[in-house]
Amino acid sequence: MPLQIIRSDITTLEVDAIVNAANPTLLGGGGVDGCIHRAAGPKLLEECRRLGGCETGQAKITKGYQLPSKYVIHTVGPIWRGGGSGERELLTSCYRASLQLAEAHHCKTVAFPLISAGVYGYPKDQALQIALTTIDDFLRDHELTVYLVIFDRRSFLLSEQLLSPVAAYIDARTNTAATPVPRAAVCQGLQDRLGRLDESFSEMLLRKIDESGMTDAQYCKKANVDRTLFSKIRSDRLYRPSKPTAIAFAIALELSLEETRDLLRKAGFSLSHASKFDVIIEYFIETRNYNILEINEVLFAFDQSLLGA
């Protein structure tokens, strides 16, 4: 999965580089910064002393030493001063500069904390949006796998504008019986499906991608899946994805709810009002919001599996 939100201790991740939310001296501190220095050992501090500090919004790289990661990328986030002092631009620059350094050092996997969202006071919902948007923009043109590491889910805050309507939709769907489908619609739907019995999941998916006019590379980015996985679909007519991956494929194609159900059935899955995951997916499709980052934000907040592979 090119971009994934996870709950973990960033110092334990076996990735090419982890990003440190550092202070301008680069000499260690509290929070993530202190944890990384303690886990890496004293040689990290020795190397940082030779770097001469770092400006806000910029990034510098060191070895990982005793960490599982090969590198540590140190970036200095802005202190929140109300939003009128260029904080958004500086925070965006932190992510972009770190990603550029990672690519320059041939990293394939990078893990970020939520920069500036701790003692620097940046509102968590805004910090999260900047992180996801900036990382996603970079990944459109670069091949990296990026992890956004949230240490404690209770500190993960979504904006009420995004979360509230989803919560209301879940409540309505999980407490209401499903609407009966008219007999005529059932018959017509059955005829349609019987006419496509010999079309596998892979064949249906590839047909719809061709109809959309997207290239494989464009589609992989939009579905938040790795291109190596997609090559399996091209080569294996009987490929069977996981349910979150199948739904990611449907979201990337911007399928209607009925089209999504058809695609899922080809992989042996369905959508149910007994599943919170399914109801969240249904909400986004019915409201025609196919932004996979926002969908994954909400799934993460409700402790559900994320889309992609």
Automatic annotation (TrEMBL):
Occurrences of domain Macro (ranges): 1-167
Family annotation (SMART domains): A1pp
Top-level division of the source organism's lineage: Bacteria
PROSITE patterns (UniProt xref): MACRO
SUPFAM superfamilies: lambda repressor-like DNA-binding domains, Macro domain-like
InterPro entries tied to this protein: Lambda_DNA-bd_dom_sf, Macro_dom, Macro_dom-like
Gene3D superfamilies the record matches: Leucine Aminopeptidase, subunit E, domain 1
Any one Gene Ontology molecular-function term assigned to this protein's record: DNA binding
Family matches, as Pfam families: Macro
Protein name: O-acetyl-ADP-ribose deacetylase
Organism: Candidatus Avoscillospira avicola
